[in-house]
Amino acid sequence: MTSIGTGYDLSNSIFSPDGRNFQVEYAVKAVENGGTSIGIRCKDGVVLAVEKIISSKLLKPGANKRIATVDRHIGIVSSGLLPDGRHFVSRARDEADSWRTTYKGPISTHVLASRLGGYAQAYTLYSSVRPFGVTSIIGGWDSELELPVDGEVGAGPKSGAGGKVASAKAGGPGLFMIEPSGLYWGYYGAATGKGRQAAKAELEKLDLASGNFTLLQGVKEAARIIYVAHEDSKDKDFELEMTWISAMDGPTKGRHEEVPKALLEEAIREAKQAMEGDDEDDEEEKQGEGEGDKMEE
Description:
Helix content: 25-40%
Shape: globular
CATH architecture: 4-Layer Sandwich
Largest sheet: 5 strands, antiparallel
Number of helices: 6
CATH topology: Glutamine Phosphoribosylpyrophosphate, subunit 1, domain 1
Distance between the termini: 55 Å
CATH class: Alpha Beta
Strand content: 15-25%
Radius of gyration: 21 Å
Structural class: alpha+beta
Strand order of the largest sheet: 8-1-2-9-10
Number of strands: 10
Order of helices and strands: HEEEEHHEEEEHHEEH
CATH superfamily: Aminohydrolase, N-terminal nucleophile (Ntn) domain
């Protein structure tokens, strides 16, 4: 009975005997059917990208944005149910506005992720609501000029009381992914949606943790990874939407903006060329294997 959720998937407030919340698992399934979204944290900024499936030829190109600006320095992209994602964006903007009103400064990326994670988790507790059918990726650049209200959180023997690191450098890039359960983690590279497995495999090949990966490299790799993930799922035609947030001395001056059209078109062109090169390599390998089999015969 518990394996299929019968009797235990009727309410958010019910756990199955083996500790599962089926409503949350169903929300994750909704995310897995959505277009692929990725985020890449670079040394000088953050890149967000999403695969927008073209469900009708009547849709206007460039409309129906899937990446939104939360505050001037933070962007958010979601995979899953689009209306749920739009509500999540509205809540994120309310949190950013509340923080600015209270503390007279911009909210940091990790604080916003924490607040949205708590908000999402509250929707897994009561029978009168359902979990959000979205997984959201939040990226931002926190100004080095803004002092953290609650200090920088650290770990290990060098941390002081409460885990605060007094000498930690404030600001910089931040990338977080919030799941339907309310769980969130900080990432160098994050992916969600239908092509998440292929996208994660490509992200793991990049040397993101070294701190040498540039924002321009991030734009081109994001385009390539979206095309790889789309090819893997064999889905309908799609439109690539991409934004970035740079350092204060970078191209966006710390603001969340769309990637310039010329740069985006260049990244798409290189991504297609890379895909064509991979296809040619695969064909050559198949031909070589066929010739080898003939020689053995």
